[in-house]
Amino acid sequence: MLPLLTLASGCGTFCNTVWWIPSEGGQRVYGGVRAEAGEVKRLAVSPSPHETAWDRFRVASLLVLDLPLSAVGDTLTLPYVLWLGRSASIRPAPDQPTPPDKSPVPASSK
Description:
Blueprint: H1 2-8, H2 11-19, H3 31-45, H4 53-76, H5 78-90
């Protein structure tokens, strides 16, 4: 049971570092904690019509219990997330064209 519980903990950290891409809100500093806290807030403020009160309570409770584990996981993966952000800022995204060269063109003599 303990190994299963360990694998199920820190879900926000796992999604932040492995599953989500930056455009989906992933690979952010403490992104796992942010995602779980945002989901708890969404469940409390604007639930979906198909969610029962029991479902919202159950999911929010699990997320609140997982928050400390995600905080530890986000702290441990912080160097990796910072490296991802640094390496992404160095090279252009693959779906964007390379910007044109803006070096001045020498004037021609007449």
